[in-house]
Amino acid sequence: MLEDPTRAPAPEVADDDQPDPRAGRVVGVGPWPGGRECWPDDPRLDPELLAEGDRRNVEDRFRYWSNAAIVAELDRTRQPLHVAVENWQHDANIGSVVRTANAVNAAGVHVVGRRRWNRRGAMVTDRYLSVHHHDGVAGFAEWARAAGLVVVGIDNVPGSVPLETYDLPREAVLLFGQEGPGLSEEALGACVAVLSIAQFGSTRSINVGAAAAVAMHAWVRRHVFGQSPVRDPGL
């Protein structure tokens, strides 16, 4: 078979797990310069971090802050956006959803179904926002109604509306389904609208972590940056 001259060569498969020294800088900072006598008089700062350094994956403005101080500061500016994920099969993507929710400073994440979820992908960001549990869809939907939140599903099912053309409500909870089967029938029935994300390749769907990032960013564009959705994408 003739090689396609426009195709880049495939990457080699790594034969070990050793990091490449060119991978990038080390995250974080060392101990506060000058020792204890030079520590700032700031109750938000953690003495242990000042003494030993701060290697956490946090914004630079939060260096040396205690976890409690970071949470208190984030609580002052929480977005009125919630995110929910069905969890009937211990979906490994929930951790990624939690991490992105922290990045947009969402009000909370809701796990619907099984209580236990894989925290590895969250990279400990669940320390900085509330993660709630609901035994089933009915209880979750009742909570959303009582909280005055509109439930908007994200799934590429027949009849779904393009996310790119939908005006997401400000006080909303974005609901995502299980990896593979997507939203359950009960979850679809709890949504005021179900939105799909435009795709142009061969895959049938993208994973829940990626879909959640796209949908949350769409909400940020609308309600933080004031960008209206495209009504006629011309696709």
UniProtKB/TrEMBL annotation:
Domain tRNA/rRNA methyltransferase SpoU type: 81-217
Region annotation (Disordered) ranges: 1-42
GO biological process terms held by the UniProt record: methylation; RNA processing
Pfam families reported in the protein's UniProt record: SpoU_methylase
Biased composition (Low complexity): 24-36
Alphabetic keyword roster: Methyltransferase, Transferase
Gene Ontology MF annotations: RNA binding; RNA methyltransferase activity
Name of the protein described by the UniProt record: tRNA G18 (Ribose-2'-O)-methylase SpoU
Species of provenance: Kineococcus xinjiangensis
